[in-house]
Amino acid sequence: xxxxxxxxxxxxxxxxxxxxxxxxxxxxxxxxxxxxxxxxxxxxxxxxxxxxxxxxxxxxxxxxxxxxxxxxxxxxxxxxxxxxxxxxxxxxxxxxxxxxxxxxxxxxxxxxxxxxxxxxxxxxxxxxxxxxxxxxxxxxxxxxxxxxxxxxxxxxxxxxxxxxxxxxxxxxxxxxxxxxxxxxxxxxxxxxxxxxxxxxxxxxxxxxxxxxxxxxxxxxxxxxxxxxxxxxxxxxxxxxxxxxxxxxxxxxxxxxxxxxxxxxxxxxxxxx
Amino acid sequence: xxxxxxxxxxxxxxxxxxxxxxxxxxxxxxxxxxxxxxxxxxxxxxxxxxxxxxxxxxxxxxxxxxxxxxxxxxxxxxxxxxxxxxxxxxxxxxxxxxxxxxxxxxxxxxxxxxxxxxxxxxxxxxxxxxxxxxxxxxxxxxxxxxxxxxxxxxxxxxxxxxxxxxxxxxxxxxxxxxxxxxxxxxxxxxxxxxxxxxxxxxxxxxxxxxxxxxxxxxxxxxxxxxxxxxxxxxxxxxxxxxxxxxxxxxxxxxxxxxxxxxxxxxxxxxxxxxxxxxxxxxxxxxxxxxxxxxxxxxxxxxxxxxxxxxxxxxxxx
Lengths: 272, 317
What we know:
The structure holds two protein chains of two kinds.
Chain A: H1 5-25, H2 28-55, H3 64-85, H4 91-97, H5 99-104, H6 110-116, H7 124-140, H8 147-177, H9 184-196, H10 205-214, H11 222-228, H12 245-265
Helix pairs in contact in A: 1-6, 2-7, 3-7, 3-8, 3-9, 8-9, 8-11, 8-12
Chain B: E1 2-18, E2 24-40, E3 44-48, H1 55-63, E4 70-75, H2 84-88, E5 91-95, H3 107-118, H4 122-135, H5 151-163, E6 169-173, H6 181-197, E7 201-205, H7 209-215, E8 218-223, E9 226-232, H8 235-239, E10 243-250, E11 263-268, E12 271-277, H9 283-292, E13 295-301, H10 305-316
Parallel strand pairs in B: 3-7, 3-8, 5-6, 6-7
Antiparallel strand pairs in B: 1-2, 1-4, 8-9, 10-12, 10-13, 11-12
């Protein structure tokens, strides 16, 4: 490729997703309804937490604003990952109907094409709700703002998005080989997200260890949040773990990219 | 210069079959087995074989979709699976069974999107589009979404899409499948023109031997993953166990004639059908019949290409 590969990829992603946005705009009413319903459903999700706090003051030692901080940060990360890579859960269907073959024949990296495939701007509904919850948390939580804490907030969101995206790519790679396994990834993304909406102090330590060392989703928001909210680590890990999200995200992305390439090399296509 | 080089390429698939509720038998299937051939720039090659012979697997390896299990592949000097994205700019692919276009987009938008994906300069794109719209009669279809096109219309759209970026090589996997006679003939005319005028190398698989007869001087026959024939179409007759038929009209009904080198397969009143190997000369047989019998008329039927190929497949079972 003549230009910088990263730029070329972003351009191709933009071209393809813009094509899908345009074709979804052909049905404007349906678009508005989908966006509103996606927003409403996620909003009710947070309402459940507010109702719980009507009868308790603290959950695992965290106030309502602090839980909103955890909830908002993981929802934002998952929201962005889903916006950019939500189509990865359809890789299996693409393998079965043979349209992955068509993508493999175009001069654009396959991962870019799959991620842009059926790009749905209605997924912004989740992001919008997460922005509101997170904004409210930042405004009301009792945070002793220092420079490192201020910088840690955007870093946490970027790394969280990257970690969830890496899981989506891993699940997509798995579907290239086992085309009927669409829900494996959801268990880790949506499952992980649901867990991370609450302080990890309410879970048994084995579970916290698992989401730290096995599938490191705890780096999406829990470890940076410990520093930002000035809390003690229940696992008593060294303080630098609270700044290790970029490392976790880089490792996850590296593993995901390797698995994706390996999966394409072992792709079997369909008959005929 | 060889544009496509295939050197001792094999591709195996592991198939797991359920033999009982818990057990699964593991079986290795060789879809392509030790295949070698080369294609020179500008050639138009027919690639035929029965279902499951390995045709599509070969094409998928040549395009980089599938990675060969062993052997060496070069297309336009590139290793297809390693340099798949780079190679994509230099090849066009049409699968007769399914479209590579965007289902919900009007044909015009699909073409415009492909122009930007392949980075075709605007002036060149317009030239190509005008040519294809005229030759493939696409004018009325451009504003219609692909899902609303008939099979024949969609195929024309797919072929135009595959050629917009001026590829060196065009792979066609059963391009005429399901088309009516008129559409088939129009498509063949277009392909001949593309090959001759634009010097595009064409490799096409088909089950319709008329495609081969009208388009390709060279034909490759694959069966069970092996190349069983590679040469001129005319040579297939001699290669297979094909048989020619001598139809003899005697002046009166008679018992089956008895000449060396030919056997009577059918008798209908005074008319008799004698079969003999296609590569044998007809002259001595005709002479023998004329010498021994009272002949009113003679004619020789060449084997139909379908029969030649069917015989070829049967012999290899």
